Amino acid sequence: MADFLTLVGARIKQLRIQKGLSQAKLAEMADLQDTYIGGVERGKRNISLNSLERIMSALEADPAEALKFGRLEVLEEEKDKQNVLDIHISLLRERSLAEVKLVQRMAKDMFDTLDQEKIER
Question: Which range of residues forms the domain containing residue 81?
């Protein structure tokens, strides 16, 4: 049972983060305590169906979304990709427009080469 609770909690956390909500804000929207949300996300609380419905309603998601564990890896990969993109953006912000355009041209050339290699395979 603990593994199931952990999976449900992890999925709720991902959905909350996707919406850009804090635990406190989600708790407020679902009319629950923020410590309860934290316990659910850590898999430490045995969430009731009523609470699940309130949380998913606050997230504007179908309750069945809380059980779609196959998306956990996909969402984690998307999160990692976004983190890398954020790092690139922060690096580029410190550069001049000419340098940013140079990086853009270099990236385009690299992607064109990669795409051409895919076609040739």
Answer: 71-120
Same domain, 79 and 57: no
What's the number of domains the chain is made of? 2
Structure tokens at 15: 């959905």
| Stated pTM of the model | 0.59
Q: Give the end of a domain, one of 52, 67, 82.
A: 67
* 86 CA to centre of own chain: 14
| 121 residues of the chain, pLDDT tens digit each | 558 898 899 889 989 988 889 999 999 999 999 999 999 999 999 999 999 999 999 999 999 999 887 766 666 677 777 778 878 888 888 899 999 999 999 999 998 998 888 887 7
